[in-house]
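User: Here's a protein and a ligand (D-sorbitol-6-phosphate). What would the complex look like?
Assistant: Let me lay out the input and then the predicted complex.
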Amino acid sequence: MADFAAPPLRPFSIRLDRSSLELLPAGPVLTRRLSDLEGLFADEAAWRADVDNGDPIVYTVASSPVPETATELPQSITRIRPGDVAGELYFTKGHMHPVAEGEIYLGLEGEGGLLLFDGTDIEFLEITPDRIGYIPPGWAHRSVNVGSNDDYSFLAVYPGGAGHDYGWVLEHGFGARVYAGAAGAELRSYPQPALTLG
Ligand code: S6P
Ligand code: ZN
C-alpha cells in the first residue's frame, strides 16, 4: 500500500481524478467498517446486529502522500457509503483537533452533512459538490451521508500537526444525530425534538 512521504518534501502537484475521485499520487487508504464505530450509534442492538450481519464498510479515507506532521498541509478524500443503523444515517467517527486549528472540506459527489459541535453549540452544514465547509478551531466535526442511494465524497485539507482526538466525541457526543426522515434527513438534537432539514 502507498505510504506518506518523508519530510522534507519537494514541491509537487497532486491530481484529483474526477472520475475515480482519487488523489494521484496516492498515499495510505484507511477503511472504516461498522465495527470500527462502536459506541457511536444510538441503537446499540441494531449496530451489533448489522456488525454480525456482514460488518459493512461505512467509509474510506484516501490520503495524498503529504504526511500528518506539524507544518505540513495534508489532504484526503473521504467517501461515505449510503446506509443507516435503525434510521441513523452513516457517518464518520468524528473528532476534535487537540491543537485548535481550522480545516476545510470541499464537496465532490453526493449529498453530505457536516455536523459541528463545540461542546455547547451545534451547527449543521449541507455539503454538496463544489461547496466548501469551513471548520473553525475548537469545533468537533463529523460527516454524514444524507443521500439515500449514492456515496458522499469530499476533500479535506487540514494542518498536519492538529492531531485527532476521538475520545472527545465519546465523552461529549455531538449534541445531535442525523436520521433518515420521510421528508429528507432530520437533525435530532438531544434532548430536543426533530428538526426537518432542507
Ligand atoms: C481530518 C479530516 C478528515 C477525517 C475523515 C474521517 O482532520 O477531518 O480527513 O479524518 O473524514 O473522519 P474521522 O472522524 O474518522 O477521522
Ligand atoms: Zn478534522
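Summary: The pocket of D-sorbitol-6-phosphate (ligand 1) is lined by residues 61, 76, 78, 92-95, 103, 141, 143, 156, 158, 164 (CB under 6 Å).
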